[in-house]
Amino acid sequence: MDRRQLIWPTRWLMLCAELPCHPLLVHLPLGLAFLIPVAALAAAFLQIVGHRLLTLWNLLLLLHLLLVASLVLTKWSGEQAAPAVEPLVAQEALERHAFDGGLLLAAASVALLVWLVAWRKGFARGAVSALLLAASTFPGLALALRTGSSGGALVYVHGSYRAWIQSNPMQQPDSDGAGAAKSPQSLPSSP
After folding, report:
1. CB 163 within 8 A of CB 84
2. SS in 3 state form for 34-58?
3. Partner residues linked to 171 by β-bridges
4. Nearest 5°: CA angle at 71, between 70 and 73?
5. pLDDT exceeds 60 at position 2
6. C-alpha–C-alpha distance, residues 106 and 139, integer Å
7. DSSP string, 107-172
8. Rounded to two decimals, what is the model's pTM?
9. 63: number of Cβ within 10 Å
10. Percent above pLDDT 70 for the chain
11. Does residue 142 contact residue 136 with C-beta atoms inside 8 Å?
12. Residue 39 neighbours by CB under 8 Å, 6+ apart
C-alpha cells in the first residue's frame, strides 16, 4: 500500500481542514439534541402506562454517547474554522457561539453522566425516575436552540459563509472596480 493513501478517517479530516466541515458536522448533534428529549418523554410515558422498554432506554443512552462524541468533533471543527471566520464577523458574535457550544457540550456531558448512572442502576424503575431521566435532556435542548441560533446569526447576519466563497456570481465589478450586486434578472440565463 502506498504511504500516500491514507485511511478513510484521516483523509476525511484532511478534507475538513480545507473545507468548512463545521456546517456539515453541526447538524448531527443539533438533530440529536432535539430527538433525545422527545424519545425520552415517549419512553417515560410508556413506562408510566406500564410498558418498561429497556431496549428504548439503552438506545437513548447510545444516542447520548453519540451526541457527546459529535459535539466534541463539532467543537473541534468550529475551532479549526474560527481563524478563517474571525476577520469577517464581530468578535462578540463568534465568542457567543463558542460559549454557547461549550455550554451545550457541558449540559450533554452532565446528562450523559446521569444516564450512565441510571443505566448502572437498571434505568428508571418508576414514573418519577423516568420523568426525571427525561427531564435531564431538556437543558441540552434549550442550549441546542441557543447555539443553533447564534451559529445561524454568524452565517446569515454576520456573513461567516464568506470565508469559503471564492467568487460570487452575484457580484460583478463596476467600471470603478468595486463590486455591485446584480439582480437575478440581470444574470445570464442557462440554456
Report:
1. yes
2. HHHHHHHHHHHHHHHCCCCCHHHHH
3. 181
4. 65
5. no
6. 10
7. HHHHHHHHHHHHHHTTS--SHHHHHHHHHTTHHHHHHHHHHHHHHHHHHHTS-GGGGG-S--TTEE
8. 0.76
9. 19
10. 75
11. no
12. 56, 59, 60, 63
All three cell numbers of 160, joined, read 461567516
Helix, strand or coil, per DSSP, at residue 18: helix
Q: For residue 47, name the pLDDT band (cuts at 50, 70, 90).
A: confident
Cell of 22: 463545521
96 Cβ contact list (under 8 Å, min separation 6)? 150
In sequence order, what are the residues at sequence separation of 6 or more whose Cβ sits closer than 8 angstroms to the Cβ of residue 173?
Answer: 179, 180
- C-alpha cell belonging to residue 64: 447520548
**Whose grid coordinates read 418519577?**
128
Q: Cell numbers of 175, please?
A: 467600471
pLDDT in tens, 82-137: 998 999 999 999 999 999 999 999 999 999 999 998 888 877 677 788 888 899 99
Strand partners, 173: 179
- Higher pLDDT pick, 149 / 4: 149
Mean pLDDT score, 3-15: 53
